[in-house]
Amino acid sequence: MKMLLPQEIQANYVLPALRRELALALIDQRKLKQGDAAALLGVTSSAISQYRSAKRGGTLKFGDEILEEISISSKKLEKGTSEPLQELLRLLNLPRAFDIVCNIHKKDDPRAENACAGCHIAPENRSVEENND
């Protein structure tokens, strides 16, 4: 069995799901057109179409806390007060996003349970401050 790094889980599961939800928030909440959302996020219109159909980024479902943070990010992006990279990094660093990574890691790799204490994103090792400007 291949040992997964937490960063691989972030890249393969969490980041695509965050991009998907951010794209949906821009379209559904902020009423942007698909092409405008794509341009704002720096992805193709085809990628947005795949996000909308859950072909891309559809394996994770976020709770209300992260969805609220995604809504905040979509508002900042629409207003031009932040950049996609800043917002995706902010969302990835939310404690709840860390918990998702840990849960997937434990589910996909039984050895992960013993490695959690040494992980930089284990709950006891976090020093992330949330910024909700």
UniProtKB/TrEMBL annotation:
Annotated CDD domains: HTH_XRE
Top-level taxon in the UniProt lineage: Archaea
Entries under SUPFAM superfamilies matching the protein: lambda repressor-like DNA-binding domains
GO function terms (MF aspect): DNA binding
Entry-linked InterPro entries: Cro/C1-type_HTH, Lambda_DNA-bd_dom_sf
The protein's name in its UniProt record: HTH cro/C1-type domain-containing protein
Species per Swiss-Prot/TrEMBL record: Candidatus Undinarchaeum marinum
